[in-house]
Amino acid sequence: MNTITNFWNYFQQNNFVFLLLNEIPKDELKTHLDKLLEILHQYNKDLDLIIKNKKNGAELIITANGNPYLFKEVELLAHHAPVIDRWKITAFLQPETKLTKYEIGTDKPLDYYGITLLISEMYFIPLENPNKPTDLGIKVLLKNYIVHKDNPRLREAVYVHIEHLIGEKAFANDIAFIKIGQLEGDDENQIELYNLKSYIDIEMEN
């Protein structure tokens, strides 16, 4: 319990630094972020955090990086979060609800260790496992798969994108397996990746 208290005490005392991310010198900010992560990792070394700044406040997201074995740890930490003015504390990456930028192709590329992918240019094909018919699998199709296919980080990069898109819990609980391949010409079976959440929701209802 100590490590949880330590984490929230440090965050509460220094919350203004993280609130004013863009106005604080980078080196000072890095010192505070490194310290916050260090204290978080005393609680659990595999958890991570994301800070999103908004116009009139900020959000601290605690993530298990899609690992369902750590979900309880995330929930416990978030449960003990103090109320801090102008802050929203969130357990897990939540599903993206504003899909317009993907639909019209104005989304920004996410760069992950040198792998640059655009969600608006990614598609998927649903896959079935004949041995487990209830399992939902997908094959993610990338424009530049050939360029990155030998990169050991490619799978991680795709996972991070999907997690940000459909939320951490859906990513862990609703998709049983993921394959990755090259996006060829038009295929009537391929669906825009940004529609994955609604596809899963419909599948879950059936």
Set out the fold topology:
Layout: H1 2-19, H2 26-43, E1 48-54, E2 57-63, H3 71-79, E3 87-91, H4 100-103, E4 110-112, E5 115-117, E6 123-129, E7 132-142, H5 145-148, H6 154-166, H7 168-174, E8 177-182, E9 191-192, H8 196-205
Parallel strand pairs: 2-3, 7-8
Antiparallel strand pairs: 1-2, 4-5, 6-7, 6-9
Explain this structure.
This protein has 206 residues and is an alpha/beta fold. The chain has helices at 2-19, 26-43, 71-79, 100-103, 145-148, 154-166, 168-174, 196-205; strands spanning 48-54, 57-63, 87-91, 110-112, 115-117, 123-129, 132-142, 177-182, 191-192. The strands form 3 sheets. Strands 8-7-6-9 form a 4-stranded mixed β-sheet, with no helix packed on it. It is globular.
Output the radius of gyration: 19 Å
Strand content range:
15-25%
- The separation of the N and C termini measures 42 Å
Mean pLDDT: 92
Helix content: 40-55%
Shape: globular
Number of strands: 9
Based on helices, strands and strand pairing, what is the structural class? alpha/beta
Low-confidence stretches: none
Strand line-up in the sheet with most strands: 8-7-6-9
Number of helices: 8
Most strands sheet: 4 strands, mixed
Secondary-structure element string: HHEEHEHEEEEHHHEEH
